[in-house]
Write a structure and sequence with these properties.
The protein has 407 residues and is mainly α. It contains 19 helices and no strands.
């Protein structure tokens, strides 16, 4: 039964909070700085010439250190370019013109969420279809916005934690995304069934002068797709594709070309945080801590998969960000026997699932604040489709492991 059909909307557009954003307080203690401090402490007690050489060598490796930072930088550039081109507003108008209002409730936050924006939660709230207040109350608005902004986080190759995990474990980013893609599909399906009303209020827009899906739009999409295909055929991958797409989009709004390529303060902070975490992972790999873990595994002192899963759950719940558990867990995987791909995917999926459900998730805090409701009320609405999706995908992974054992 669709939960939304039981609940009557209690808010109007006038009830929605204003778009004014308070100034963010400066935070001295951040996740990246904590890991930087831990890395320096480890180097102080265990460092020597060989260890320092290994750390420097790893940090000088392009695929390990610079590539994930450049990927995140170009993602932030594309985010600003899409906002400058007003893509999401035009897309909302297109859906409304074609009486696809229910779809707009899913696609607007979903498209914004594809670009893992630092302030994207606030942006997604402000861009949510204005007619939605006729179908939802504030708790439902916050729940739908939060849920569908993150349903693809499992398989999105542009998420910082996923990029970081693949860089540390030398795993193909797209293969990890492909393994996790069914989980994103399940999350979308059960969220649609559980959270979206069977019928939605349609507002027909008579003005079609803002129509986005014209010939130039399809030409741009085709060009971007061709660039991606050529990049992956040549083996250049995601980084080159993002760079070329950002240049292409930049010339579509030439008056903001330079401004969009200049990193904002928030983007700079994110890149520095990622650099600190990569530095910590390099230290872990260089001081021999993994060898200690390997000895524990070989002596059967504990079940390594359960231990790694517990650490992932704990850090994901306490911090609400993927970088925290990725930096601790992923460097230790190379000492486990067998194929690491499924274990990497499992730990990432487990961490993202816990992030979805923790009150420490900043996007949840922003959504609840914007719509003036409790984070707990949001979690009460979304936990069932999230849990069902995760359990079904986990069973599929176990079935896959059984087939590998048999054949």
């Amino acid at each position: 039964m669709n939960l939304m059909n039981k609940m009557k909307p209690s808010s109007t557009s006038a009830d929605l909070p204003s778009k004014e954003v308070k100034k963010e307080k400066k935070v001295f203690i951040t996740t990246g700085r904590i890991f930087l401090l831990l890395a320096l402490i480890l180097l102080f007690f265990f460092g020597n010439g060989v260890v320092f050489g290994k750390v420097v060598n790893r940090l000088c490796t392009f695929s390990y250190f610079l590539q994930p930072i450049f990927i995140l930088y170009f993602i932030s550039v594309i985010e600003k370019q899409l906002e400058a081109l007003n893509v999401f507003k035009k897309f909302e108008n297109f859906l409304a013109e074609n009486r696809l209002t229910r779809l707009s409730y899913v696609l607007i936050p979903g498209l914004i969420g594809l670009i893992p924006s630092i302030g994207g939660a606030q942006f997604a709230c402000s861009m949510f279809p204005k007619t939605s207040s006729k179908d939802f109350d504030n708790i439902q608005l916050a729940s739908v916005n939060y849920y569908f902004r993150h349903f693809h986080v499992y398989s999105n190759p542009m998420i910082a934690g996923t990029i970081l995990a693949c860089a540390i474990t030398h795993t193909n980013l797209l293969i990890v995304g492909a393994v996790l893609f069914p989980l994103s599909c399940l999350t979308f399906y059960f969220g649609w069934k559980w959270l979206i009303p069977a019928q939605a209020s349609n507002t027909w827009l008579k003005k079609r002068n803002d129509f986005i899906f014209n010939r130039s739009f399809f030409t741009a999409i085709l060009f971007i797709a061709c660039i991606g295909l050529i990049c992956f055929i040549l083996g250049q991958g995601l980084l080159l594709w993002l760079a070329l797409v950002s240049i292409f989009l930049g010339f579509m709004k030439p008056e903001k070309l330079i401004i969009n390529f200049l990193p904002t303060r928030q983007t700079s902070v994110l890149l520095i945080e990622i650099a600190f975490i990569l530095f910590f992972a390099a230290v872990i790999n260089s001081i021999g801590l993994k060898e200690v873990f390997a000895d524990m595994v070989s002596s059967n002192l504990f079940q390594p998969v359960l231990a790694l899963s517990f650490v992932t759950i704990l850090l994901a719940f306490l911090t609400g960000i993927s970088q925290a558990y990725v930096a601790i867990v992923m460097p230790l995987l190379s000492f486990l026997p067998g194929n690491h791909l499924l274990l990497i995917c499992w730990l990432l999926a487990l961490g993202f699932f816990v992030q979805y459900m923790t009150p420490a998730h900043l996007c949840l805090v922003v959504c609840s604040s914007y719509y003036k409701c409790s984070p707990i009320d949001i979690l009460k609405l979304i936990y069932r489709p999230l849990l069902i999706s995760f359990l079904i995908w986990s069973l599929l992974i176990l079935f896959w492991l059984q087939l590998e054992t048999l054949f």
